[in-house]
Write a structure and sequence with these properties.
The complex is a heterodimer of chains A (536) and B (271). By secondary structure, chain A is an alpha/beta fold. Chain A folds into three domains: 33-165 and 354-410, Periplasmic binding protein-like II (D-Maltodextrin-Binding Protein, domain 2, 3-Layer(aba) Sandwich), CATH 3.40.190; 167-347, 3-Layer(aba) Sandwich (D-Maltodextrin-Binding Protein, domain 2); 464-535. In chain A, 50% of the residues lie in helices and 10% in strands. Chain A has 19 helices and eleven strands. In chain A, a hairpin with a 4-residue loop joins β4 and β5. In chain A, α16 packs antiparallel against α18 (450-495) and α18 runs antiparallel to α19. The longest helix of chain A is centred in the last third of the chain and has 46 residues, at 450-495. With 271 residues, chain B is an all-alpha fold. The radius of gyration of chain B is 27 Å and the shape is elongated. Chain B is built from 14 helices and no strands. The chains are: A alpha/beta (536), B mainly alpha (271). At the A-B interface, α1, α4, α18 and α19 of A face α1, α2, α6, α8 and α10 of B.
């Protein structure tokens, strides 16, 4: 045999081996399904420290209460999750319960996942004997399931198991070494003092120390909040509906129509905060990957970093020191420069739930899958999950106890005013966000300044915003096309076949469609008016 | 590979593949094309509507195919044109339960499905349908969509004649969903267009709220707007009621604390 033949044979043997393993898995799955047990498979991509164990603990507790049902956890790395998910769904081999990615395509939800509205209107039996007994399942979630509602499909598709807040993490051991018993910063002024203190400590001891470890991923969690404190009053100015929370489209449109500008004092002050905070991060942080930002911190080379509560357990596990957390420190209302733009400390009451699990349409175990999710989001299921994972609870009445000291710092702050909008305007569109981020080095890099940044961004901003708005109109029109088919089908099921529930579905679609159609017409008009203003 | 055994190795995977077929999925159940259309399974629905052995009436098949064609990928002019033709044939027949939906959808094709849209033809279709079947929810929906187009696409003064004409239709709308949607649309027009008429917007927001809004997100915003605008126009008791309703339903909202403070101030002022 020549070398090429051997290589081919080795390749073929590997292929055959993989095939046999896959076949073995299918056979074993078939066998277990024929054993009489109902097997509920749950797929997710949460590989954070402690999460899988917490998940197993909930599954074990559920199985003890429900003999004859087996819950299996399938973890898939985040990088391949999207393609894995699509393959499983299209191939008809999807597990019973799947964690859906944030921003999952509406068409995917519609085609492969079960709407849960009717189930959510019924009480969760696992809450019997608690204060939530008899309440519709939907109303037992602390956010009322706002994040699960799909505004385009007009249905609930996911059951969340946790929620997340953003905090500044700090090296408690190092903090005590530098500042003794001084409490962590509560205001922006105290934060700056801590950063200066860290630099002074570094100079004094010769230890290399960065006040705030950051990266392209981490930076926004600190700077967005700071900037948002400065746009609270501006937001009130453009809130013509007096709803206290203008939409991303209203914010973008008002910019395009000249109601506000990046040169407005409040916006400049917001960027000034970003500029000042950026000086305490490592040089070139905006080019660093997420892992780099974490390394600096867990290696003890930085005093602080910023991220979401989802990273808390991983940071604690990786860091050889005690990790603490505190809310992002914002300027006080008394601050001579930044105070006048502030309405009040930002509320986190609107923190929406996350880690959304959906039930696949093809599952043969729909009832068992739903039952497991009911258990997971009952008072005792969610309490167990919170204790085991240290992640935030998502069910009303589940609060961290004395032994849950890792959870407490992350509980949402319920008091305060609605936050302003973020400097990257991510909610408005990707093109807009990109231009705002692409020039970031002019703001936080060496020699960077607010003027440099703003003057570089302004010429490119409106054209990119127009691009985003055009895309929104185009995609919105596609959605209207799709919804027309559903609406007419539900009308037929109601009017001709008198099917129960079809009229309600038609009403839901029509309500949403009318709202979206008016929004699209308005955006088209904004584009036209912005063009006219530009021509003048 | 040895020339004497040219096909022995590929047989193994074939055998394995055959074995794995033992675990193939069971035969799918018979499909309901209208359920499929409702849930976005257009290809499957279309196949049933055009099947020769379909048990559906030719009229329902034609109508179903037209609805399916609007979403069948790839969307082509020819498919949209065929859908129009199928609907025209249904409209030409004696009236039955499919006539109004077919007329509505025919106008809808001119409105948003045809590229480029034929807006004047769509508006004519909606108007004629409403004139002939004003009591039908789809005709009322068509009238609302026509009013919407006339307001938002007005060359000048959208809050003048187009808004007045839309408001004149309101008493004839009997479908609660359509009527509430019309009020929300008119309120947003008053807020966003021309010289803005927030007082008029408040009236429409209140009417929509009274009729009922299903979307929680929209309901929360409408309640907050009613509160804020009522305060602004010196109607504290209406603001108070809106804020109380908001807090009863949307305690976990970024606006809740601010609204609680406003409510407390209103109550204090009422003493």
């Amino acid at each position: 045999m020549n070398r090429g033949t051997i290589t081919n044979m080795v390749g073929f043997a590997l292929l055959a081996g993989c095939f046999l393993v896959a076949l073995g898995r299918v056979v074993s799955r078939e066998r277990s399904e024929r054993s009489g047990d109902v097997v509920v498979r749950v797929a997710h991509w949460q590989l954070e420290s402690g999460l899988r164990d917490a998940f197993d603990a909930v599954a074990k507790a559920y199985m003890e209460e429900n003999p004859g049902v087996r819950v299996e956890q399938i973890t898939v790395p985040e990088r391949v999750y999207k393609s894995w998910l699509r393959t499983q769904l299209v191939g008809g081999t999807a597990p019973d319960i799947i964690e859906v990615l944030p921003g999952v395509e509406t068409s995917l939800l519609d085609r492969f996942f079960s709407p849960l509205t009717e189930e959510l209107d019924k009480p969760n039996p696992y809450n019997d004997g608690t204060e939530l007994e008899g309440q519709p399942w939907r109303r037992t979630f602390s956010d009322g399931l706002a994040s699960s509602y799909n505004e385009q499909l007009l249905d609930y598709y996911g059951i969340p198991i946790s929620m997340f807040t953003v905090r500044v993490f700090y090296n408690k051991t190092l903090w005590r070494e530098i500042f003794g018993d001084r409490p962590p910063p509560r205001t922006y002024e105290e934060f700056l003092a801590a950063c200066e203190g860290a630099l002074e400590f570094s100079r004094r001891t010769g230890r290399v120390l960065i006040p705030v470890s950051s990266s392209r991923y981490h930076g926004k969690y600190l700077t967005d909040r700071m900037f948002q404190s400065q746009t609270q009053k501006l937001l009130q100015r453009i809130d013509h509906a007096r709803s206290l929370l203008p939409t991303a489209n209203e914010i973008g449109a008002s910019y395009m129509l000249g109601e506000w500008s990046l040169r407005d004092q409040a916006v400049r002050d917001g960027f000034q905060l970003v500029h000042e905070a950026g000086r305490y991060m490592q040089p070139g942080f905006n080019q660093l990957a997420r892992e780099d930002g974490v390394f600096y911190f867990v290696q003890g080379r930085a005093l602080m970093t910023s991220s979401g509560s989802w990273d808390a357990s991983s940071l604690r596990d990786q860091a050889p020191f005690e990790v603490g957390a505190f809310p992002v420190p914002l300027p006080s209302k008394d601050h001579p420069r930044f105070g006048p733009n502030i309405v009040g400390p930002a509320s986190e009451a609107g923190t929406v739930s996350g880690i959304m699990f959906a039930v696949t349409q093809t599952t043969p175990n729909r009832e068992a899958a739903l039952d497991f999710l009911r258990y997971f989001t009952s008072v005792r299921g969610n309490t167990l999950f919170m204790r085991e994972s240290s992640w935030l609870p998502v069910v009303n009445g589940v609060t961290p106890g004395d032994n849950d000291e890792h959870v407490k710092p992350f509980m949402p702050i319920m008091e305060g005013a609605p936050p302003g909008f973020a400097p990257t305007m991510r909610d408005f569109g990707t093109e807009t966000s990109r231009v705002l981020q692409d020039h970031f080095h002019r703001l936080v890099g060496p020699g960077g300044s607010v003027d440099n940044y703003i003057e570089a961004v302004i010429p490119a901003l409106v054209p990119r915003m127009r691009e985003d708005m055009r895309r929104k109109v185009q995609r919105g029109t596609w959605n209207l096309w799709r919804q027309d088919g559903s609406a007419m089908a539900y009308w037929h099921l109601h009017d001709v076949r008198a099917e129960e529930g079809a009229a309600k579905r038609w009403e839901l679609i029509v309500e949403g469609q009318m709202l979206r159609e008016a929004e699209l017409l308005w955006m088209s008009r904004v584009l036209k008016e912005a063009d006219a203003a530009r021509a003048q | 590979m040895s020339p004497s055994r040219p096909s022995s190795v590929p047989r193994i995977p074939l055998l394995l593949l055959s074995a794995s077929c033992a675990f193939a999925a069971p035969e799918p159940a018979a499909r309901d094309p209208w359920r499929d259309l409702a849930t976005g399974n257009t290809v499957e629905a279309h196949a049933v509507f055009i099947a020769r052995d379909s048990e559906l009436s030719p009229r329902e098949r034609g109508y179903g195919e037209a609805v399916a064609l609007l979403n069948l990928q790839p969307r082509t002019d020819a498919r949209i044109q065929r859908a129009s033709g199928l609907l025209d044939a249904i409209i030409a027949d004696p009236e039955d339960k499919l006539t109004v939906p077919a007329r509505f959808l025919r106008a809808r094709i001119d409105h948003i499905h045809r590229m480029p849209p034929n807006i004047p033809e769509a508006l004519r279709g909606y108007d004629e349908l409403f004139a002939a079947h004003a009591e039908h929810p789809l005709a009322q929906l068509g009238a609302t969509l026509a009013a919407m187009a006339r307001i938002f696409q007005a060359e000048s003064d959208p809050l003048g004649e187009p808004l007045a004409a839309a408001e004149a239709i309101l008493p004839r709308l009997t479908d609660r969903t359509v009527k509430a949607g019309m009020h929300v649309m008119l309120a947003n027009a008053c807020i966003r267009l021309g010289e803005r008429d927030q007082r008029r917007a408040l009236g429409h927001f209140e009417a929509a709220q009274a009729l009922g809004i299903r979307s929680p997100k929209l309901r929360a915003s409408v309640l907050a707007s009613i509160g804020g605008l009522s305060e602004e126009f010196g109607q504290p008791e209406r603001a108070l009621a809106a804020y109380e309703t908001f807090l009863a339903e949307f305690e976990r909202d970024d606006r809740a604390h601010a609204i609680r403070e406003r409510l407390a101030a209103l109550k204090e002022g009422a003493r």
